[in-house]
Write a structure and sequence with these properties.
Elements: E1 2-7, E2 18-19, H1 21-31, E3 44-45, E4 50-53, H2 57-66, E5 67-68, E6 74-75, E7 94-95, H3 96-109, H4 118-135, E8 139-143, H5 145-157, E9 161-163, E10 174-178, H6 199-208
Parallel strand pairs: 1-8, 3-5, 4-6, 4-8
Antiparallel strand pairs: 1-10, 2-7, 9-10
Helix pairs in contact: 4-5
Length: about 210
């Protein structure tokens, strides 16, 4: 089973470089209803993949932007991103990056100021992984940054081989995950993710690579 995780595109929202607490929270809510910002990319064929996205407009538009789809994406709230809130109440204008960073820290630490804690996001991610692992079909998963991090962490814990993503995936970045069972065992690499260094791996990669 091969899973391609994709961080959804930035929205076409015009953000202020600095804002107070109330303005930041309002802007986040507004952004979640906006479409994906237009970008020029080459679309990939995803005909053999089942494609899942969050319910946000930008999430579904990202899938259509990046992939040639054989069927409409399956939209599920299990993949919705976490709507960050102001990390403290203040009328002082603070940099947008600070609001986002501190909101992410509070999410990770389980602060009740945020709409959802990391533990709750992981619970959603577990429900989603149970769904797709039950189907056992190669799939593309488009989601927001924090939900994507939760999915990546769970897949790693479950023994999937992970390629890409780093500490914080960029918009439109792809992360590839495959089951350990697809590793040939002749080298210390996953044959579907990287150039295998043994004959068995090279042959297996040639057969299975998309």
């Amino acid at each position: 089973m091969k899973i391609i995780l994709v961080r959804q595109a930035e929205t076409d929202m015009q953000w202020e470089s600095a804002c107070d607490a109330a303005s930041f929270t309002r802007a986040v809510r507004a952004a979640m209803s906006r479409g994906a910002a237009p970008v020029s990319v080459r679309r990939s064929d995803a005909a053999r993949y089942r494609v899942y996205t969050g319910t946000a407009r930008a999430s579904a538009e990202t899938a259509e932007l990046l992939f040639e789809l054989a069927e409409p994406p399956v939209r599920t709230p299990l993949l919705d991103d976490v709507p960050l809130r102001a990390f403290r109440d203040t009328q002082k204008a603070l940099p947008l990056g600070l609001w986002r960073a501190m909101g992410g820290v509070q999410w990770a630490l389980g602060s009740s100021r945020q709409a959802e804690t990391r533990k709750q996001t992981l619970d959603r991610a577990r429900q989603f992984l149970a769904l797709i692992e039950g189907e056992d079909r190669d799939c593309v998963v488009v989601s927001g940054g924090l939900t994507l991090l939760a999915l990546k962490a769970l897949l790693r814990r479950r023994g999937y081989c992970i390629e890409g993503g780093g500490l914080r995936p960029e918009p439109l970045e792809r992360i590839r995950a495959t089951k350990q069972s697809l590793h040939c065992g002749g080298c210390h690499q996953n044959c579907l993710l990287s150039e295998a260094k043994c004959p068995t791996g090279r042959n297996k990669a040639k057969e299975r690579r998309v």
